[in-house]
Amino acid sequence: MQRRLALVKIPGFEYSEAHSDPLRDFNEEIIMSEVQFRNFDETKAYKALQKLQAPSLSAVLDGKRVTSCNSSYELGKQETLHYNYAAKQVDNQILSVLQELSDEQQLIDKFRLIASGEYMNSGENRRVLHHLTRGQLAGSVSHEGRDLGAFYNEQNSRIADFAEEVHAGRITAENGKPFSTVVQVGIGGSDLGPRAMYLALKNHVNSSEGSGEAFRGRGEKLNARFISNVDPDDAADILREIDPSTTLFILVSKSGTTQETLTNEALVLDRLKHAGVKQPRKQIICVTSETSPLAKSSEYLDSFFIDDFIGGRYSSTSAVGGAVLSLAFGADVFREFLDGAHAADAAAMEAGILKNPALLDALIGIWERNFQGFPSTAVLPYSQAMSRFPAHLQQMDMESNGKHVNRDGEQLGYLTGPVIFGEPGTNGQHSFYQLLHQGTDIIPLQFIGFLNSQDGLDVNWEGSTSQQKLNANLAAQIIAFAKGKKDDNPNKTFQGERPSSLLYSKSLTPRVLGALLAHFENKVMFQGLVWNLNSFDQEGVQLGKVLTKQVLGDGELDPALQEFSALLGVRS
Amino acid sequence: MQRRLALVKIPGFEYSEAHSDPLRDFNEEIIMSEVQFRNFDETKAYKALQKLQAPSLSAVLDGKRVTSCNSSYELGKQETLHYNYAAKQVDNQILSVLQELSDEQQLIDKFRLIASGEYMNSGENRRVLHHLTRGQLAGSVSHEGRDLGAFYNEQNSRIADFAEEVHAGRITAENGKPFSTVVQVGIGGSDLGPRAMYLALKNHVNSSEGSGEAFRGRGEKLNARFISNVDPDDAADILREIDPSTTLFILVSKSGTTQETLTNEALVLDRLKHAGVKQPRKQIICVTSETSPLAKSSEYLDSFFIDDFIGGRYSSTSAVGGAVLSLAFGADVFREFLDGAHAADAAAMEAGILKNPALLDALIGIWERNFQGFPSTAVLPYSQAMSRFPAHLQQMDMESNGKHVNRDGEQLGYLTGPVIFGEPGTNGQHSFYQLLHQGTDIIPLQFIGFLNSQDGLDVNWEGSTSQQKLNANLAAQIIAFAKGKKDDNPNKTFQGERPSSLLYSKSLTPRVLGALLAHFENKVMFQGLVWNLNSFDQEGVQLGKVLTKQVLGDGELDPALQEFSALLGVRS
To answer: Which residue positions are annotated as catalytic (chains A, B) (predicted)?
Structure first.
């Protein structure tokens, strides 16, 4: 157990002495608040939870529970995102201990520390500022004399101006034609999040049949594609399908040294030259840190910046997502997306767990993982537009909380992050739901649904629309998983007692998407804080990089590595 | 424990009395062989395995082990697929008991029963004949006087002829133009497998820079797309991007009653009419069973048939995959794919586990699941072309073996199918590998790699090509997972002892893809036989369908279902 003093501005508390650490140059009044970091199994709540029993869903899940077990985000412009936990195996007693856990682990105070710019990425000695990319939660944060909120806003403004110039045809391809396509070249956090967000909003923006909501019918301004894998076939496939001569490329690498991304840049440059472009880097913009090798080159058309305080997997709301989304859809769509995320962040500051959906979701997940012993969680959006959202969450969650040491580097004695997987419904129903219903492990489920489709193209067939069928399936699955069904034939028996939650809203708009993203980011953050680990580093990716470099070098290798390299054709 | 007599032709055994069950009209000599179905935990091997300890990979994994722990498929035309298990936590003692397990559970005899047309889908009283769609393993199988192998071949020939007519422009769209696009409309097994196979071969067929292998450079004959989800946005997205007036649609539903597929047909018909097509069903072909409502309609352009003995998730090598793959790439590509699958099937008949990669993979998986206690398995192809292969395996494995009762419907007392998930490398490295390396659960890994890229478009950057970097990463990961790394900083410590296997070949060709598919199908089959369950039914999907129908009807609902339906806008 470690006791340390941390500095945070908490509204409602009295202000006391000013900040004295020169590394932490908050430019405003702050207060001293005592925050303690302790392992989860050292809390009183941990011991209390060990003694509690999960309620039976088939016993408790009635209509009243469905209407009452609901916690909502108000997102502005009359948009709302709801979190329903009626089909989770919790009761008032469990929820009350989970509230104690939240208080005991000081989750809200620690979130305020993060939002205030505290160096909560302890191992790497970095602040954690993705919340600040969409709005200010807890006073401004300055670093080496610069207001970082203003810096992120400035990058967004520069992107908005740049996108406007491209859309207006004032910035063109080398041949003078307007750009028709934008291709993001990045991997991991520079790929999965922006790609998932792009796919989630594409139909919304392109719909020509909608009911007049904000961005409907405007149409994509540039068609977007993504290259990520170092496998050359990934780039080959995309580069074959586009016209490089009218394509704008976005090279995304915070460090400016990501092997996959620079290798793919080489492939892109090669194709641009083949297409007759004489100065190929003048059709490339960079999103990188100001100190990276990419930023220092004047060969590129332009560069937009992030910094070390934005983790890759949390960068969708920074310039990493901003460039491609603004170029594809317009900067106003990206701004709505940020506003939705900011509204959800603000709601995550609430200390009462029943009024804070992200916190509640996090704590129920802890209950399922550490006390019910469930090894994985399925994310199941009933929306084809969210087809890659589960892959993004898989990264965000598993890379953040797949850790075996606490924030001080001590081995932990309890389970941390689960495996996350998922596919859109109803597709999943025809795939892996068999195991979810009747397998020997119980997998908690996270459903996502929308009352309306994005596009509006729909038909009535056999008495209902596709959208009605989609949501009828979703409602039916929640109940089938929760309540099961007895049958004289054990093969047709459903044991039920498979817990699920439901996030839902009227439509999948930019604002709702931003809130959904922030919901999961904050859920993962709260879980990491309960487990007392650092959710913001990723030391587990280093060893593979080191060994890869060895294989590509010419020094002596571990004999088994030598043989595997040989049989894969890399070394002889 | 159940004892029954089953009928099977096993080469090398003496023939005895003829088949007497009128339901099972084998048209050839058969022998009586005693096959026993017993639960896994009733075997001697189960008890023996409980006493064994997994070896330490950092202790045993040397260069010699890498070259010796290899089992290969010879696929004809000088193509080979290798299965390397050097980095699995098995030793000679464990392998020897796994051989005993295979013998004791009569896995090869039972595979022969399946291949011979025995009614091994016991609950549904169906044969299991997907192997027969690609070749004959154990004598012909006849049903109601029809030779089923000949029937499947006939469908393939009809598809080949039809595809040839389309490619030659003799079968055209209503407006007289040649078809430019083919869109498969299906869900689950009618979608995931064919889609994954299409993506896996697209670059191979389209490459214009390759080294002259069989199908390189021919180019896709029709561009293929897929509509699956009942979410109307799925169809909207695809239908916006194609020209319906020159698109051929394939409606795939074995029963001819799949809700999602018929709903999407209504959307397709609507779009075809909007595009001015007067007889829209004349731009649709069906893949269905001969007795389905779809087969009975003369409105469609044509129909191709499967039967009840081809399970949806095993249908990629039937007309379900054959129609779209033959139309997109040509029937010769599809035939190569079948030949690769057949070669792998034939190899799976081998009783010695070290010479039978699918069987060995299955048994090592059993060791990991039931004795090492690992809850899930990651499938990690280092090939972007295989991006949807893990999703297909997720369906095939989890729907087949996610069961809690044995084949006689009795509750099982041991774990069955694990959660399957995965994404292509190197993308996964930048996503969830953190948890795989340093999380609190151990997840066994199934790597797939190829010496060459499909397309051939590649560049040398910083001393190596993209393909070399890709495979250097793959080799490095195997060793990093197996051996880990000690460090004074526990946060930089890798415990290692994360087992993995590697399937690899020279290139991802149609033949190799067929073998990979069959490898996993047969692996899942063998595991189901060890667990003594029916891998070929899916009772777990029924309850959701029943409740969905209730929601879409107007009868009274379970009160919680009523409320969930209301908040999702389906009922008020």
So the answer is: 399 (proton donor), 430, 545
